[in-house]
Amino acid sequence: MNDTVAVGGVPPEEKPPSSQHAEGEDDDVEEEGAGGAGGEGKKKKKKKKPKKKKAEQSDPPRVGLSKFFPDGNYPEGEIQPYKDDNTWRTTSEEKRYNERMAMEDPDLTYQNIRRAAEVHRQVRMAARKFIRPGRTMTEIAEYIEDGTRALVEENGLEAGVGFPTGLSLNNCAAHYTPNAGDNIVLQQGDVLKVDFGVHVKGRIIDSAFTLTFEPTYNQLLGAVKAATDTGIREMGIDVRLGDIGAAIQETMESYEVEVDGKTLPVKAIENLSGHSINPYQIHGGKSVLLVKNDDPTKMEEGEYYAIETFGSTGRGRVVESGDCSHYARMHDAPHVPLRLTSAKSLLSTINKNFGTIPFCRRYLDRLGESKYLLALNHLVSQGIVQSYPPLCDQRGSMTAQFEHTILLRPTVKEVVSRGDDY
Fold first, then answer.
1. Catalytic annotation on 283?
2. Which one is catalytic: 118, 195, 229, 414?
3. Class assignment of domain 74-319+393-415?
């Protein structure tokens, strides 16, 4: 996530040379005639076609992505070949046929995922410049979410924010976003995880990075980024989930961090994981643990995954801690009678605006809901809505996260959220 204006194939605007008129003006061009009295040539005026102005992203980003890609074709992510015995897929006529059929899918699945990924790249590029010590968590979250809504051209359940913006600090690894009234300010020594999502027709891009503002924990970030890249390299069709976890752990735990003269091992957080993603369902049912395990479940062609890894200088295990902000309606929610009228009304709001896409309390505030906590807790107690409290390692430790979304295509794997930054 670097500081250039244009990303993912969006070129910067070309400025005309100073000797030319502004774009769109007619230029008078002298042409010599075939001859005439005294050999004087005739002057003719020739209109020059106006140049088509190229779109340029605003600062902060608010220009919808369709202005940059009017043909609906969005940048392909990073392509990686499958490993070992899967390399035949790149030459298989059958698999190449399957690839063409997938591209012709009437739902344009690939293009939906790539559109969401390009929104993520452009928003996070701007966010990396915006996020600085002294900003509040609410300012940062709203900056990211406002940019996401504008660029994806939010449209009900067709396109929008993929889940609440995670801004977990220090020993908190995941699932923290500010609620109303939160006044936490980012500090110089903080380690900040920035985890946000974008969806188009329910196809969710889930990608995250970590920021620090001094060098103490650079090795921690390096360990986690390398572990994520390892997980991406090792994953593939027919690969066992347990084998990927072992590779991630080996990479992660080969790093150490020196803090105040003391050397600390980097530990993979054993009870967090990557996951498959289904349409409108951020956790699709398959989990990619970050440590060695015996899960024989295999990845399959056509699936897509969030490979996310978390490293810690603490015990390497998280527990629920703090006020809950993240919620999601269960995709298999039971049909139970609700005794609270307020709970029925709130469920209607959730169904209309989020469906099974995760949301947070700020999003309910934004819709004009008030005094909803009793109703929300009732929906949780009935198993209709799932709550996701913050997940934290021991106090005093530091955690980091990197994450990408990867599509397992018939011939190759596509790291759709990859950018110049990570």
1. yes
2. 195
3. alpha beta
**In the block, which residue shows the tokens 């380690």?**
191
* Annotated binding residue 404: no
Q: Under CATH, to which class is 328-387 assigned? A: mainly alpha
Q: Catalytic one among 99, 199, 234, 275?
A: 275
**Which of 206, 229, 234, 393 is an active site residue?**
206
Tokens of 257: 């961090």
The model's pTM is 0.85
Q: Which residues, at least 6 apart from 47, have a Cβ–Cβ distance to it below 8 Å?
A: 26, 27
Which sequence spans correspond to the domains of the chain? 74-319+393-415, 328-387
Cβ within 8 Å of residue 356, ≥6 positions away? 280, 281, 328, 329, 330, 331
Strand 159-166 to strand 413-415: parallel, antiparallel, or no bridges (unpaired)?
A: unpaired
Asked if residue 120 belongs to a known ligand binding site, the reply is no
**Beta-carbon contacts of residue 292 (< 8 Å; ≥ 6 apart):** 242, 245, 246, 249
- Quickly tell me which residue has 């202005």 as its tokens: 67
206 is an active site residue: yes
Answer yes or no: 13 catalytic: no
| Rounded to 5°, angle at Cα 379 from 376 and 381 | 110
State percent of the chain over pLDDT 70: 85
Q: How crowded is residue 107: how many other Cβ atoms within 10 Å of its Cβ?
A: 11
pLDDT digits (tens, 9 = 90+) for 279-306: 999 999 999 999 999 999 999 999 999 9
Q: Which of 99, 145, 308, 414 is catalytic?
A: 308
